[in-house]
Amino acid sequence: MNENTIEKEKIAIVLNEQGVSPEQAIEMIAKELQGDGLIYYDLGSYTTVEMLPEADYVMQKCLGKNLINHHEYHKTTKIHQKLVHMIGNLLNSPKLDEPFGSSTTGSSEAIFLSILAAKWQWKKKGLQGNPNIVFCNNAHISWYKFSKFLEIDIREVPLEETHDFPLDNVLEQVNQNTIMVVAVLGCTQLGSCDPISLLNEALETINLENNWDVGIHVDAAIGGFIIPFQEEERNWDFKLSLVRSINLSGHKYGLVYPGLGWLLFRNESFFPHELNVTSHYLSGSSDSFTVSFSRSASHVMAQYFNFLHYGINGYRKVIRKCMHLTEKLTDLLVESDLFEICSDGSLPMIVFSLKDTVSFDEYVFTGKLREKNWMLPCYPLSQNGKTVMRIVIRNEMTIPMIRLLASDLIHAYNELTTPSDDDQ
Ligand SMILES: *Cc1c(COP(=O)(O)O)cnc(C)c1O
User: Fold this and answer.
1) Which SS3 state, helix, strand or coil, does residue 188 take?
2) Across 259-266, average pLDDT
3) Rounded to the nearest 5°, which phi and psi values hold at 41?
4) Contact (Cβ atoms closer than 8 angstroms) between residue 71 and residue 285
């Protein structure tokens, strides 16, 4: 069946006149979902597939609570506020500043809002010309999408062949109408982190020389909940003078199920208060600047559960374990001598390709692997168009699973290089 027939069938499907029992509904759903990929075999995904049963319990208790009803659920609102402060603290929000921000449905919504806020701040300056945004061509697709939605000129900087950040080319694109320069802490394709403190320093200089006021937004969707828990200190967050906003995905290494992101501003002054809309539909009033109005409190509470349960040490342990598994799997892949590793090993992910000498490509290879249930994404790198595959190491993964995966990777490779009986 091709996709068109599925589309046509969908149109003909209508809601049943009579319902079925809850048990029957469960059974029908389970049956219909058969054939879906298995979440534990989803190698490319950064999002959390499993939380503790206790976290599930907390979430279940809050499912029906609407996050927007600030007055009714003022304790929930208080916890949300507390989380913004905790994350602000984790991101070295300056002592005298009050961190300002909100949960979102993911980093995408946070990115949309960060561009919107920067555009409004720019508008207030009353400059001539169009607003523009500067980012490298490894930026997440949401940067392209929302810059377009918000009519911001995209000044895209192509990455060089090497892993080096093209600092000079980035600076060349900046002018007085640049609403922000975007830096990435863990790019989606390769897991590399931009040298944000170098960028900060260089921008400080050109701001001073030209009397501009261009700031940095850090897309820390992946790295935001990793880097603060690693031993090596990196200068990337609000410690840097020009970092004005940061997005993080609570549902990636914040270890919450899909549906949670965070947007933090250095302080309230970087957020145009005109965008903070107060509603009066509910008892009392609710301030909010997010896109969605109603949203379950579950995900926010799950984040709180994780913060309470893990604490800094617990998150450190999780990241350390993920890094250990990454090294282990990298070793097994290198030992096999069949693959080329492209990622730099600084984040819990492995980006790799087949060695050039084989007769099949990565698309055929990942197709073969799918026979063993593994879902391994395959895509061209922005740097050089080279096709790569990605394995994200997540919290629920274990050493036996890594071993099984390595053995299946090698097996799939060998099956493709050895002619099968049918071919002989
Ligand atoms: C995942 C990701 C996003 C999008 O975030 P969601 O949390 O999926 O909405 C944005 N930027 C980067 C670097 C990402 O990896």
Assistant:
1) coil
2) 96
3) -100, 5
4) yes
